[in-house]
Amino acid sequence: MSTVELTKENFDQVIEGNDFVLIDFWASWCGPCRQFAPVYEGAAERHPDLVFAKVDTEAQQELAAAFDIRSIPTLMIVREKVAVFAQPGALPEAALEDVIGQARALDMDEVRRSVAEAAGGQ
Question: End-to-end distance of the chain based on CA atoms, in angstroms?
């Protein structure tokens, strides 16, 4: 499966319509972003059950600002509408596979409970 280009117009639809979305925040002028692109595309090929999306931070500045993206590339993983991972930097293939495996293994009931407790404790 190829990657989906996320925009402010389709963002909510993609996140709400899929249980597991990886998002690569990138820009065409960014060298590390260009280096990470084939690694990301390769992972998309290996994991056709997941949605791999990209946000061009130049074209989608509002979206990048909404997620407080300060460094690119930044990888974010959203499971069941909860951001469970966000980290700047281009990951090597093995590290990306490890992160995907860890995100797959999460107990989302536990994650939601933790989020609710954190929100209630503020």
Answer: 41
Per DSSP, 102 falls in state: H
In this structure, which CATH number among 3.40.30.10, 3.40.1080.10, 3.40.50.300, 3.40.718.10 belongs to the domain 4-120?
Answer: 3.40.30.10
| From 15, 21, 22, 33, the catalytic residue | 33
- Residue 60: is its pLDDT beyond 60? yes
CB contact at 8 A, 117 and 60:
no
pLDDT digits (tens, 9 = 90+) for 19-53: 999 999 999 999 999 999 999 999 999 999 999 99
pLDDT at 122 over 60: no
Whether 98 is catalytic: no
The one catalytic residue in 6, 15, 21, 30 is 30
Active site residue 30: yes
